[in-house]
Structures are given as C-alpha cells and as structure tokens.
Amino acid sequence: MDSGEGMRDREVFLEEVLRSAGRIVKRGFENRTSASWAMKGPQDYLTEVDAASERHIRETILARYPGDSVFGEEDGGEIGARCWVVDPIDGTANFARGLPHFCISIGYVVDRRPVLGGIYNPITEEIYLAREGHGATLNGKALSVSAAHDAQSATVEMGWSTRVPQSEYLSVMTALLDRGFNVRRCGSGALALAQVADGRSDAYVELHMNSWDCVAGLLLVAEAGGAVCPYLSAGDLRTGGRILASAPGIAEVLSVDSGTALIDAPRQALRA
Ligand code: IPD
Ligand code: CA
C-alpha cells in the first residue's frame, strides 16, 4: 500500500490526466458532426472521441505507473491489485446529440478498495476529486451532501439502461414517485453521483451500473458524508451491480424503495 504521500502524488496525477483527457473530449465535442457517432447496441452510443480519450488515459497512466492496471469501458483490460477504472466519456448519448452534460470519470482501486476518484466535465470546467479519508472537493472546495430528510422536497436521479428489464425499472420508479420524490434522469450516472456529493441532488439510484460509471462517484459521495451501497461486495469491477448513493436523511427509505442495501457508516461504505 502506498504511503499517504504516494497517494497524494497519484491524486495530483489523476487531476492532470482528467484535464488532458478533457481537452481531447472538449475538442471532439466542438468539432463533432452527425456522422461522428455509431451505435454499439440499442440506446448505446459510441463516438471516436470515446476511443481517443480512453487511449490517451490508458497510455498516460501506464507510462507513469507501469505496475498498475487499467480497466476501461471501451477496451476493457486487466484488473490487477492496483487498478484505474476509466470511463472516457460518461453521458455519451448527451455528447453525441450536443448536450454538454457529460464527463470523464476515473477511479483508483487498491486491493478492491476505492481510494481515489475524479470526475471532470470539460465544458463547465467542474472537477471533482476524492481521496479515501480526506474528503471530496469541487474545484478545490470541500463538499458535503445535502441535509434532505423528507421525500416531498427531495430530488432523486434514477439511471436507466437496457441492461435491466423495463418492469423492474418501472416498479422502482413507481415506488419513488409514490413516496413523493421528484425523479429525474439527465443521462450521465457519473455526473449524477458527483451532484449528490455536492448537494445539488439528494440521491442516485440505478438498478445496474458498470464499475467505470460509478467507482469514482461513489467515493465522492462517501467522502462528502453520504450513505452508499457496498458496491464492491454487491458486484465486482467486471460485472457491475445495483447502486444507491444518498444524503443520510433519506437513505433508509430509498434503500427500501429501491431494494438496495446500504452500509451504515458513510466513510466505511466502500470497504465491503
Ligand atoms: C451510461 C450513463 C447513464 C447510465 C448508464 C450508463 P455511457 O453510460 O451513465 O446515465 O444510466 O447506466 O451506461 O453509456 O453514457 O458511458
Ligand atoms: Ca458510462
């Protein structure tokens, strides 16, 4: 395990790699055309910029830390004891259709414990960083989750994909609406988790999420004082799993409504 200083160096490096990938993604967004995207499957978009961003991130990480492994959305990869988990663009459908709500998300996991997380939207220039035990920041300012305690005034984002049967999705959505929550969906699960950490949203629920979409965001929420699911015991980095990340005051009811277990102590949440 790295010393605190070693991990601080890696956090500085994480910020650099997010910003350099952000330049590629921003340029790609500004220059995109309707021919710049293709479909990987139903409602699953792919652009050339996803591939370019992931290639850049992978090469930069392995040049600096050749003993680490990189596991990414587009090219997969090995999952070693020290693994960088990379989503080169989260919110690809928004990116392809010209909506500036997308980000790059990178988590760093050591022996199955998430220790660093970073999320960057290169259009708004918002950069979120978290280090295990050291809190979470947005553009350098410390974050805390919202004080929400009542469904009637709370907003939950619920992610959707074709990976989960529609009936399951609709029954959880119905339970949330019946409880009185406002439910929204903005198309980037990673940014949705970042917005729980910064208090602009009160919780995020998704019935299946891949690790590259959520490892960084779950650490952000836990480090901002939120309650999160035991992700690495519920699913692993390769298969993914069910996600809940919430302001503590509404976490219990959301756990019931979404059928997702929580870990009690927020800062212990990811150490399954
Ligand atoms: C998707 C987005 C979406 C979430 C899906 C993800 P992509 O990632 O985060 O909000 O609901 O589970 O697959 O395809 O934009 O990288
Ligand atoms: Ca994604």
UniProtKB/TrEMBL annotation:
Assigned EC number: 3.1.3.25
Alphabetic keyword roster: Hydrolase, Magnesium, Metal-binding
Catalytic activity, reaction form: a myo-inositol phosphate + H2O = myo-inositol + phosphate
Keyword Metal-binding: yes
Pfam annotation, one family: Inositol_P
Coiled-coil ranges per UniProt: none
Residues that bind Mg(2+) 1: E73, D87, I89, D213
Protein's name according to its UniProt entry: Inositol-1-monophosphatase
Source organism: Alloyangia pacifica
